[in-house]
Amino acid sequence: MRLISVLLVLVICVADLACSKGYFWHITDVHYQPAYYVGANIKEDCVSGTGDAGPYGSLGPCDLPLAALEDTFQFMRDTYPAPDFIFYTGDMIPHNPGSIKWAGVIEYQQNVTYYFQKYFPGVKVYPILGNHDTYPEFQMWDYEYWLFDYTAEAWSPFLDSTMQATFVKGGYYTTVITPGLRLVAVNTALYYDKNLEVDPTIHTDPAGQIAWLTGVLTTAKQNNEKVFMIYHVPAGYNAGLTSQFYKTYNEMFVSSLDPYNSIIIGHFMGHDHLDMFRIFGDLTTPKLTSAGFAAGSLSPWYFANPRMRLFTYNNVSPFSLTDFTSYQYDVKEANANNRIDWYIEYIASIEYGLDDLSGASLVDLYHRMQENSTLVDVYLKHWKGVEWVGEMCAPFSVCREAAVCSIGSSMWVPWAACMGLESTSS
Q1: Could you tell me how far CA 376 lies from the centroid of its own chain?
Q2: Handedness of CA 209, 215, 221, 226 (dihedral sign)
Q3: Which residue from 97, 139, 250, 387 has the highest number of Cβ atoms inside 10 Å of its Cβ?
Q4: pLDDT tens per residue across span 154-193
Q5: SS3 126
């Protein structure tokens, strides 16, 4: 299977006579659990007791065991060993971190560096913090403090001095991937609604991030650059009928992107452990929108088969995002067979009939979903990579409607209108 994957990539590459196709990996929400052991009790997070925890993960409140983590990186290297770069969008720390404190948090960030350098030496890696990557859990201050300082040091092989200079202020940075293509890494864990160290009524712009972001995007637009954005917590509203940002910060962040969506060619996110799309901008002007892609998690926590993605893009000006392949393995089969067999879950262009991954293409997909219930079924099937769909809202018809509305509406008023809710309350 792995040889077939490699040959498939090589065939595609040879067929691209224009030699402008680039590849990059996106991996998120690893949640490595070093205390996991085979035969542990699944109901006890696979870290204690006696039960049915398998060697390659368990579908329940359990995170990723070491064997699965190492197999993942090996598969990525076997499948495409020389990507242009790798996006890692946060959350290495498990949901049950035990007695971890600040030193343990930094050790996990050192793990990020270790595994990427071990399996992809010399490849550019662009990391960002998740909401679990801190202590106390979810709490993140909006000024320079130990988390930003020590993480910048742990990630120093990936972040040069210029990137570190802003990272220590608030966990954000920017850099040029290649002339004409800029990366903007935003710390949306600051805006997470369980972060009690920020208060929207007091902290109008935590860590000065929006002012910085606006300046970076303004300069990028003036310089005719295209932009990739990475962040952990997705903006917008979800099938749980909420935003995971504080609502004030969601509206501020999304609206700050409006003048620049025409130069943003992709948002890459994680956090929800769900495969989701987002559109930013006015749907009536599709060419001025930007497209967002929240990837499924590597952790199987709460009934998700582990997944990662290999994206393709045009790596010369004018730059564009073209496609992705989602890879996964079946946890139950892996445990039964005592080995992991990764396979292609789907290829976006084929599964959804997309010409590319532009904002305009997602706008077209969004409109087609409103008319085609089968297409919605396909979308929901990929939420967690298993048939079970999972977000805690009922009835399921509401979840279904909310999932589609969340693609096309990242601001409260249009999302509430799509849902038929009162737009004055959340």
Answers
A1: 21
A2: negative
A3: 250
A4: 999 999 999 999 999 999 999 999 999 999 999 999 999 9
A5: strand
Do the beta carbons of residue 32 and residue 69 sit within 8 Å?
Answer: yes
User: Where does the pLDDT of residue 425 fall: very low under 50, low under 70, confident under 90, or very high at 90 and above?
Assistant: very low
Q: Give the contacts of 229 (CB within 8 A, at least 6 positions apart).
A: 183, 184, 185, 186, 264, 266, 267, 268
Q: What is the DSSP string of 303-323?
A: T---EEEEEEEE-STT-EEEE
d(CA 113, CA 162): 19
SS3 268: strand
| Strand-by-strand arrangement of the 124-127 sheet | 124-127, 85-88, 21-27, 307-314, 320-328, 343-347
The torsion region of residue 140 among left (phi > 0), alpha (psi -120 to 50) and beta comes to beta
202, two tokens: 């007091």
pLDDT per position as a tens digit, 217-259: 999 999 999 999 999 999 998 766 678 999 999 999 999 999 9
Q: What is the CA radius of gyration of the chain?
A: 20
Q: Are 102 and 135 in contact (CB under 8 A)?
A: yes
Is-contact 420 414, C-beta < 8 A? Answer: no
The C-alpha atoms of residue 199 and residue 295 are separated, in whole angstroms, by 28
Alpha carbons within 13 A on the beta-carbon side of 368: 14
The count of C-alpha atoms lying within 13 angstroms of the C-alpha of 76, restricted to the half-sphere facing its C-beta, is: 31
The residue among 143, 190, 198, 191 whose CA lies nearest residue 168 is 143
Confirm whether pTM is higher than 0.85: yes
> Which three-class secondary structure state does DSSP give residue 35?
coil
Dihedral-angle region of residue 378 (phi above 0 means left; psi in -120 to 50 means alpha; beta otherwise)? alpha
Per DSSP, helices labelled H in 224-290 are 247-257
Instruction: Determine the Cα–Cα distance for residues 364 and 169; give it in Å rounded to an integer.
Output: 39
DSSP string, 371-388: H-HHHHHHHHHTSSSSS-
Looking at the DSSP bridge assignments, the partners of residue 328 are 307, 343
